[in-house]
Amino acid sequence: MEINTAAALITYISKIEQESAMLYEKLAKKHEELRETFLSFVKENKKNETNIKRAYYSVISDALEACFSFGGLNADNSLSQPIVDEGTSLSEVLRFSIDLEEIIEKFYSKAADQSKALMADLPRVLEHVAKLRNKRGTKLRLLLDNT
User: Fold this and answer.
1) Domain containing 118: what range?
2) How far is it, in rounded angstroms, from Cα 143 to Cα 141?
3) What is the pTM (predicted TM-score) of this model?
4) Bigger pLDDT: 63 or 55?
5) What is the DSSP-derived secondary structure letter of residue 76?
6) 35, part of any domain
7) Using CA atoms, how far apart are residues 52 and 10, in angstroms rounded to an integer?
């Protein structure tokens, strides 16, 4: 699905943050050794969503929504959650999580780049979340290396 408007972007961002939070909640229950790490991701996701919405709603206007269009920004279907069952190893979970964080980071970076010309606050918050996702990916890689 192509994202054309800022409203569509915010809707998709909510989906990204909520669905990845649900995944990390499941992983926290399944992998007690990383429970606190995964729960911290859930908390961060909720904060990310709130901050992005706050930045968006502080600058949005009908003129912006009517005149602004993203180009080539697509809702990525590869964000679907994996089947996490008893047979899923911690290494598999960490590899999937790393891939997920990279996809989300790239999405946020691209959305920030495309919205810079018309807005200031929203791209800044999107860039910040992209950096947080990058740090999260680094943390997950370190955890994978130690398993």
Assistant:
1) 6-73+83-145
2) 5
3) 0.83
4) 55
5) -
6) yes
7) 8
